[in-house]
Design brief:
The protein is mainly alpha-helical and 187 residues long. Helices cover 72% and strands 0% of the residues. The C terminus is likely disordered.
Length: 187
């Protein structure tokens, strides 16, 4: 029994599986791609809402959470927060702040969807296309559950980004900045 500790999960170099996994999950190669992917998702989601605020305001109203006086304001402001946070991640600036913003937004979105599921209020998300409509009640309930899973996945992306940023700061490593002259080497 004494030898179990040494044999458990170590490779030839003596590195255990947890250390290898942590190293992979905090590696700049993965982090940059996660941040760009997450940023693009939020940029793509923000653009239709910015272009058509009245349709998005209608979607916000359907959630039945905000008072009527805040619906238009949130329909005007929220997409710009999404766009700015997405751009910050794609451009590699204010990464920690942008990740926290996106994490908070995702928690708010998930809470609003979960609350409407609890209330048996089948809503259209309005996440990517505020004009998306015409689904049956069953389809909307299914979509709402799928949205919770999708948003949970994006929260994992936020967690990876924040964990990698924290690990980088603790280790004192330089920021993972892409050198434009070496973009071909990254692919």
């Amino acid at each position: 029994m004494a030898g179990l500790g040494e044999a458990r999960g170590k490779d030839r170099a003596g590195i255990d599986a947890v250390t290898r996994l942590a190293s992979f999950l905090t590696h700049p190669w993965l982090t940059v791609r996660v941040q760009i992917g997450l940023g693009l998702i939020f940029i793509i989601a923000a653009l239709p809402k910015i272009v058509d605020p009245p349709s998005f305001a209608h979607m916000v109203l359907n959630y039945r959470i905000l008072p009527g006086s805040l619906v238009n304001l949130s329909a005007l402001v929220l997409p710009w927060f999404e766009l700015l946070a997405g751009l910050a991640l794609v451009l590699g600036i204010f990464r920690r702040t942008a990740s926290v913003w996106i994490g908070v937004l995702l928690c708010v979105f998930m809470g609003a969807i979960a609350l409407n599921l609890f209330w048996d209020n089948p809503i259209e998300c309005g996440c990517f296309d505020p004009k998306d409509a015409g689904k049956s009640v069953e389809e909307r309930f299914f979509d709402m559950k799928a949205l919770l899973l999708r948003d949970a996945g994006m929260l994992l992306m936020v967690a990876q980004s924040l964990w990698a940023e924290r690990s980088r700061r603790v280790a004192g490593a330089p920021s993972p900045v892409v050198d434009p002259s070496k973009v071909g080497d990254l692919v």
